Amino acid sequence: MRGRTLPSFLSRAALLLGGLVGVAQPALAVPQVVLVQNSGWMEPFYSDPTSQFKPLVAALAGSVAQPGDALVLAAFNQSRPGAPSPRGLLSESVDAKTVQAHVGTALAGLDLARKPGGAALADTDLGEAVNAAVTQVLQGKPGLVWLVTNNRNSPNNDQATSARNREFYTLIHRGQAIDKALAWPLRMQVEGQHYRANGLMIYVFAVGREGAQALDRLLAAGRIQRVITEPPARLKPLDRDTVRLVPRKVENAPGVDFSMDANGLLRADVAPDARSPSASIRWNLENTIYPYTIAGASLAARSMLGGENHRIALANNNVGRLAPGQAAPLASTMQLPVAQLPGKWSLAALQSAGSAYVLPGRIELQLQGQRLELSQAFRDRMAALFPGDPLPDIFTPPSEIQASTAVLPIEVRVHYGSGPLFAAIGAALALLGLGVGAAYAYARPRRVVLTVEDELRTVHTRAGATQPIYDKAGQQVARLKTTLFGNQLLDLREGAQVRLGR
Predict the structure, then answer these.
(1) pLDDT interval class at 3 (50, 70, 90)
(2) Number of neighbouring beta carbons within 10 Å of residue 50
């Protein structure tokens, strides 16, 4: 397949991305750009008949691209007059059922690029390719940029790869557009006519906050792990979420139990009658920043719950030599928001009966004076996959990154039984019954028997009514007042012969 030139490629990609803005798309869809290296250093990946290079790229694109995503596939080397780079191979709105086949077809005709006017194979400029994807294809909008390379960064056949790689990593670490960057060093032994290689590197750069969120969703859903089983090496960010706290045991707090769900949310389940002001919690402090060892850092922690902000007292305020994936025990004393928890007879508790009253918050763990070192196991792996490549030394974090913050979301959940609610409902029904009975008693018609001048009379009245009583001559001789509790004669005229009853 003949690739499109850079101007037509960018125009088509920009039109595709722009067109998707005005179309109803899935809420989680983001544009994705896949850059595939085809410079001279990649010769064995293209010429070795056993190479799985192209099938790997197609499988990865088919796994990470989701319906509604705009997908752009391009080959890159180093741009020269008459030979632009990147060179577009495919741009389309993703149909999940066909994307892998379409990418495979687009890659089938891809071969090594040569310099214009000669037989010399093209050089490589990793930074140029990533910049073009971010600024020209995505046009600064959020998205994901994938880079598949043998990790040889040599513009103009420059052999000072260490310096070239430093420029590339400066773009990653100090570039404002890239929010998150990961790398997967993969074993792939290939041999060509001129070179042999032991492995390749796959990078992903998340552009913008939405791009980083999309990458996190791909990782959480296991879509990348379907194709790449190796853990990703984190390049950026290195100043947050370098560790996580996993609760092991709660002491001196009866009725309080901690657990963590699959998404990393900490739950504190509190019994309704638990009113301990604090809890002693034993944690595992885990290093989550592969491939770095936390050589040393000082620790401080705070809890923010229900409007309360409290320092968490740590038994050990330092951590050191914590390898990636390893955990260290950490004991703490944490204030519980007992003043913010409603009593079991409160309206909030009654509304939560049978479920849980939830008080959201967070725990913040700060690492100051953080010193990160590339783990020796990763150095050894990189040396085996890319012999002679100085890249492991350049994985060292920027010197200005000396602190990080880990945020642990937490929910304090109080489980209220249904007893108080049933009691409240019963009391309300009883009051309602009394009210209905009183209303009926008040409104029902009553008959009162009176004797006026030896004449027996029956008067129809209601509770709360007062009516005059007349003698045979038509003169008012009294007034009859009726209440819920009986009848009463008022203003009885002197000498009048009026009485209740017979």
Answers:
(1) very low
(2) 8
Residue pair 278/307 in contact by the 8 Å Cβ criterion: no
Q: What Å distances lie between residue 185 and 41, 47, 154, 384, 385, CA to CA?
A: 17, 21, 19, 10, 8
| Strands 178-191 and 196-207, bridge-based pairing | antiparallel
pLDDT number for residue 438: 60
25 burial level (CB within 10 Å; 0-12, 13-18, 19+): middle
Q: What is the pTM of this model?
A: 0.76
Residue 122: pLDDT over 70: yes
For residue 380, what is the enclosing H or E element? helix 376-385
Whole-number Å distance between alpha carbons of 342 and 325: 40
Could you identify the residue written with the tokens 């953080």?
370
Please tell me the number of Cα atoms within 13 Å of 15 on its side-chain side: 8
Per-residue confidence band for 33, with pLDDT thresholds at 50, 70 and 90: very high
Confidence of residue 421 (pLDDT cuts 50, 70, 90): very low
For residue 500, give the H/E element and its range.
strand 498-500
What span, in angstroms and rounded, lies between the C-alpha atoms of 21 and 19?
5
Question: Residue 239 — φ and ψ, nearest 5°?
Answer: -115, 15
Beta bridge partners of 452: 455, 498
Pair 353, 304: CB distance under 8 Å:
no
